[in-house]
Each structure stands twice: as structure tokens, then as C-alpha cells.
Amino acid sequence: MDVEAILKALANPVRRDILLWLKDPATHFAPQPEGYPLEKGVCVTRILEKTDLSQSTVSTYLAMLQRAGLLTSHRVGQWTFYRRDEALINEFMSTFGKQLCQMLKRGDYEGSAG
Hints:
Layout: H1 3-10, H2 13-23, H3 25-28, E1 42-43, H4 44-51, H5 55-67, E2 71-76, E3 79-84, H6 86-106
Antiparallel strand pairs: 1-3, 2-3
Helix pairs in contact: 1-5
């Protein structure tokens, strides 16, 4: 797990929105091509529609989230589908949460009074 890559990916509000939307795709996305189940991933076309950003920007965002390990993708015919990697997200939250608590307890962070 690359914590730095994850933090960089999470630094952008639209990338955070994409992760949030993919947590509950049935609530956030329209039906998919050929009735592909949302639980198996969301078509990049639906993500594009939701963000209202250019195709190149969304592709860059999705690639960054995927490189960080937060998303997985697979192709079905002409479509690419994305879904969250819940195992890695849970591992990150647990590990980073513990590290952050330890750091704050020690006062080992920028802006500390000590």
C-alpha cells in the first residue's frame, strides 16, 4: 500500500466524490450499457456524465485513483468499468488512522507547539 499515492489521490475533491459515488453506485448512477450490474463496476461513461468534466480529465482522475489502488477496472466489450477496492480502502483507513493518532500523540507534525 502506497500511503503517499493514496493521499495525493484523495487531495482532489472530485476524486473524493468519485470514490463516494462508487461506494453506493445505485444511488448515484443511471442504468448502464446492456444492463451491466452496478455492483460489478460503473461504466466510465456514467462517471463522465456525473462529473460534467472533460473525458481526458476524468480519465486522468480515474487512472490516479487506480494507481493508488483505490479503484480496480475491467473491460467488457467496448466499455471500461470501475469499482472501489474496499479491502485496500479499509486497510488504508485502519493503518493511516493508527499512524495519525500516534503522530498526534507525539506532537510529531507540522505546526506543533513543541
